[in-house]
Design goal:
alpha/beta; 12 helices; globular; seven-stranded mixed β-sheet
Length: 368
């Protein structure tokens, strides 16, 4: 069979590799001039630093099979993501942990005391949080919410926290110890040669052809036995039901000597600071040594027609436009929508790979 793929990011690369190994002919079309989608990495010409061109991507998972899969194509070296946050004129650790609580409230709590204190701060009248704000107030109470979440959320999503689903905040842990690892997952790391090299190796198979700088248009679907589409869901249908909402990012590049900010990621939680965070990319490869440094300020805004969509925007009230597109997608027999944009949901890299593996296996098992 001849299978077409729209996009050369993680979803289509993993599915395409599975089909190629099963003996099928795979044609992948990518409208950009590189593979790996938004996890694309490249050497910065001025500093030699490995830069995450579309914002930092840290690999973390509890899925042993997914961890083994990525290490099959690239050596992953240890990396622990320790995020700091500037809020109200001070620097704290995120996610909120015992040090954050003691610093913020000027206390010397032990874990049991901090747990009891935060429970007193929390709004216990909220039993089933629906919005981001309700979840935050039940989660940490009004003071920590105002300092770390309210302003940042407004900048990141361009919406009131009352409009955003609680599920977005549920991804962030609250700790009553001094563990400042941003993730709880057993496997964490960074690819030694970058994500783009990893994806290039996934795509390195005799049955796979990759065409860069060329999108696969909806009119091209009939040329293939089946198509896996990882582009924007509404774009495939010509936005006939209206536009889905996405957020995009703008990056302001800065160069410096030495260690410019002392960490890889510094969030800026105050609403009057226009950027959401500053990332210093040489810290994402701690095994490398660079005298100079490259940093990026990140600004979030609504995605326009020519922008790169990063984050699908979900609302507490739901989205009839999304419902219409999902119904249209399910009605197509020869197209499967995959990835963050194709399924219109936020997915970490490990979840993306897991979904791709499962999709490929299910399809191959059912149709051969």
């Amino acid at each position: 069979m001849h299978i077409g793929f729209a996009g050369a990011g993680l979803s289509c690369a993993v599915i395409g590799r599975a089909f190629a190994e099963a003996g099928h002919t795979v044609s992948i079309f990518e409208q950009r001039d590189h593979v790996a989608g938004n996890c694309h990495t490249e050497r910065d010409g001025a500093t030699g630093v490995m830069v995450h061109a579309y914002g930092p991507h840290i690999f973390h998972t509890n899925d042993t099979e997914v961890w083994d899969y990525v290490n099959r194509f690239e050596r992953f070296l240890p990396y622990t993501n320790r995020v700091k946050a500037t809020a109200q004129g001070r620097v704290y650790s995120l996610p909120i942990n015992l040090l954050t609580i003691n610093q913020f409230f000027g206390k010397t709590f032990i874990p049991a005391e901090a747990r009891a204190f935060i429970e007193e701060q929390a709004d216990q009248s909220i039993t089933d949080p629906q919005s981001f704000e309700e979840q935050a107030l039940r989660f940490v109470g009004p003071d920590l919410y105002a300092a770390f979440f309210r302003g940042y959320t407004r900048k990141q999503w361009g919406l009131e926290p009352t409009e955003i689903p609680a599920s977005i905040l549920k991804r962030l842990p609250l700790r009553f110890n001094y563990n400042d690892d941003y993730f709880d997952h057993r496997f964490q790391g960074m690819p030694e040669g970058g994500y783009t090299q990893m994806v290039e190796r996934i795509l390195d198979h005799d049955n796979i052809t990759v065409t860069l700088g060329t999108p696969l248009a909806p009119d091209d679907v009939s040329k293939f036995d089946h198509v896996f589409y990882s582009g924007p869901l509404d774009g495939f249908f010509g936005e006939e039901h209206g536009k889905l909402r996405y957020r995009t990012l703008d990056f302001e590049r800065m160069e410096a000597q030495g260690d410019a900010q002392g960490c890889a990621v510094m969030n800026y939680c105050d609403e009057d600071t226009p950027w959401t965070r500053i990332t210093e990319h040489k810290h994402f490869s701690p095994w490398e040594d660079h005298e100079d440094s490259v940093l990026f300020r990140e600004y979030s805004r609504a995605c326009e027609a020519e922008d790169i969509p990063y984050y699908p925007v979900h609302l507490v009230a739901g989205d009839r436009t999304l419902d219409a597109y999902r119904a249209a997608a399910e009605a197509l027999e020869n197209v499967t929508f995959v990835g963050r944009l194709g399924t219109y949901r936020y997915m970490d890299m490990d979840v993306t790979i897991r979904a791709a593996l499962d999709t490929a296996r299910g399809w191959l098992a059912a149709r051969g």
